[in-house]
Recover the amino acids of this structure.
C-alpha cells in the first residue's frame, strides 16, 4: 500500500490544465498512486481517497462547484 501526503492531491488540482471532476480526480489519483493508496495530512493518517476528499471539503481546502473541484489556494498551508 502506498502512503502519500494530501498536498500531492492538492498539487494535482493546482497543476491541472482543465478542472477535474471528483471522478476524474479519483481516476488520476489511482493512475498515479494505485487503488490501495492512503493519504495523510498534518493531523490525519490512513485516509482513503473518499475520506481525504471529505476532509479537504470540510476544511475548504478544495471547493466543489457543480461537477468541478478545485484547490483553494487561500486555505492551503505552505510547508
Amino acid at each position: 500500500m502506498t502512503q502519500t501526503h494530501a498536498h500531492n492531491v492538492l498539487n494535482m488540482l493546482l497543476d491541472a490544465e482543465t478542472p477535474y471532476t471528483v471522478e476524474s480526480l479519483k481516476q488520476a489519483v489511482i493512475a498515479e498512486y494505485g487503488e490501495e493508496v492512503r493519504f495523510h495530512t498534518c493531523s490525519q493518517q490512513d485516509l482513503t481517497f473518499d475520506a481525504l476528499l471529505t476532509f479537504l471539503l470540510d476544511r475548504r481546502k478544495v471547493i466543489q462547484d457543480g461537477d468541478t473541484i478545485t484547490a483553494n489556494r487561500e486555505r492551503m498551508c505552505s510547508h
Remarks:
- DSSP finds three helices and five strands in the chain.
- The two ends are 25 Å apart (CA to CA).
- The longest strand covers residues 62-65.
- The longest helix spans residues 22-33.
